[in-house]
Amino acid sequence: MGAQIPEVRSTDELRERWMKPEVISGSEILLRSLLLEGVDCVFGYPGGAVLYIYDAMYGFEDFKHVLTRHEQGAIHAADGYARASGKVGVCIATSGPGATNLVTGIATAYMDSVPLVVITGNVNSSLIGSDAFQEADITGITMPITKHSYLVKDVKDLAGIIHEAFHIANTGRKGPVLIDIPKDVSANKTLFEPSTEPVILRGYNPRTVPNKLQVDRLAQAIQEAERPMIIAGGGVVYSGGHEALFEFVEKTGIPITTTLLGLGAFPSGHELWTGMPGMHGTYTSNMAIQQSDLLINIGARFDDRVTGKLDGFAPHAKIVHIDIDPAEIGKNIATDIPIVGDVKTVLEIANKEVGRAERADAWRDQIKQWKQEKPYSYTDSDEVLKPQWVVELLNDTTKGEAIVTTDVGQHQMWAAQYYKFNQPRSWVTSGGLGTMGFGFPSAIGAQMANPDRLVISINGDGGMQMCSQELAICAINNIPVKIVIINNEVLGMVRQWQELIYENRYSHIDLAGSPDFVKLAEAYGVKGLRATNKEEAERAWQEALDTPGPVVVEFVVRKDENVYPMVPQGATIDQMLMGDAEE
């Protein structure tokens, strides 16, 4: 039985049907408008305030909806769908607790610049502000974590609002937009006249084309630099600028590091790629940043996990920052050459101007030497299963071609370190907010966006329990996600910090009472497998790959394994604890 994943059905005939002007309800306007925006899958959970909307779905075969088992699962699935496809993710929830259950997912998308349209129901317009049953001011609650919010007051405005929302979510610095629809608005009828004209909003005009003089300054700085370095972030992926970035690196010969959200923006096998920077980055990346005389930030935001101690970051470097959001430039790190614009557009223009960094030959040799001398390393074992080895197994058997989603914690860092990505939109993880419970439902969304690709969800035993109920979705729809659980029976990253920083005072981290994950999987109708050594691991993982449907594979690993390198709190990024390498 194949995966029952919706296919896009936006044929000309269907679009003509959806665009037909007629008097229909707000709920029908919503569904048609979503289809006209190219939405092929919506994740949601019904409730009283959205019952008219769900009633409009009844018998509407063109509209595809996935019933998750929790609103947080719905929004994380929509988020994973957006990150893995480049399209806008959409979810629906009812008023009150349904809407507030979306808040963590909205914040997750906002921090990582993911385009979502979040649709919530609300009580009747006449009851707003009266503390009615299941009323919550969701537009007020989410104001700091949305790019824009709408409270729809008139059904006549609904079609235009939806069209605007998709434009705002997916242009400039992308992000979540919320549309709150009172119950009476979803019930009221009006003439549906679809909005198809380009959106022009007063005061909203994101700059995409850079200042030519600043690009010229960048080209000149490259010619003068002896130790240039590139940091590429998620903005490269979101702009579709990976090919332009590759050309830029090839033309200039500048070494490049990719941030956690930038993984896949540049092929990991390239000789100039140095790995990930920052708290758990490579020795090469961190040393190169600290010793560089020109640091070119392309679509990253200089967050604290990359910079470490701010006043000791890249102390010798002239800073170039390319970003679509002018608010990010100079926010954390003083910038010498600011370039505001769409990353892809900026790089395409820059590629016509820049030349090879001719003075950096010795620097490239130094980078190569660091990579050879101090790669990521760990002490392997034939007695116990090491989590790093597990990730290497996943990488080797899939040749780095899978879409990998993760939860948050040690397993997330090991996946980032040891899985080698070759293409963009293959890595889905919560970076800025660090949301536990994100990994598994985001994999469902990623799989539905890419039905023909292998999707692996890597989770810890802690985060897996936060959204494990979504196993039902995989079972019912035969969504073939391979769900990996790295089980060390503790909150691993918290334990690591308590060991290294809090003098081994292990406080409330024991997860030994977790369920039997194999039996849990089987309870939902999903195949469950367990491995405690290398032989079992290889056999179980191959069985998972050979199984056409969803599979849970639990790898029981050593409890006291740490993620290295690690930059301690308050240190500069060249002050790394190397762990096994130091020993």
From TrEMBL:
Cofactor annotation comment: Binds 1 thiamine pyrophosphate per subunit. Binds 1 Mg(2+) ion per subunit.
Protein name from the UniProt record: Acetolactate synthase
Thiamine pyrophosphate enzyme TPP-binding domain boundaries: 407-555
Residue runs in coiled coils: none
Keywords: Amino-acid biosynthesis, Branched-chain amino acid biosynthesis, FAD, Flavoprotein, Magnesium, Metal-binding, Thiamine pyrophosphate, Transferase
PROSITE patterns in the record: TPP_ENZYMES (PS00187)
Transferase listed as a keyword: yes
CDD domains: TPP_AHAS (cd02015), TPP_PYR_POX_like (cd07035)
Cofactor list: thiamine diphosphate; Mg(2+)
Biological process terms in GO annotation: isoleucine biosynthetic process; L-valine biosynthetic process
Thiamine pyrophosphate enzyme N-terminal TPP-binding domain location: 25-139
Cross-referenced SUPFAM superfamilies: DHS-like NAD/FAD-binding domain, Thiamin diphosphate-binding fold (THDP-binding)
Chain ranges of the Thiamine pyrophosphate enzyme central domain: 215-348
Pathway assigned to this chain's UniProt record: Amino-acid biosynthesis; L-isoleucine biosynthesis; L-isoleucine from 2-oxobutanoate: step 1/4; Amino-acid biosynthesis; L-valine biosynthesis; L-valine from pyruvate: step 1/4
Similarity comment: Belongs to the TPP enzyme family.
Cellular component GO terms, alphabetical: acetolactate synthase complex
Annotated catalysed reactions: 2 pyruvate + H(+) = (2S)-2-acetolactate + CO2
GO molecular function: acetolactate synthase activity; flavin adenine dinucleotide binding; magnesium ion binding; thiamine pyrophosphate binding
EC number: 2.2.1.6
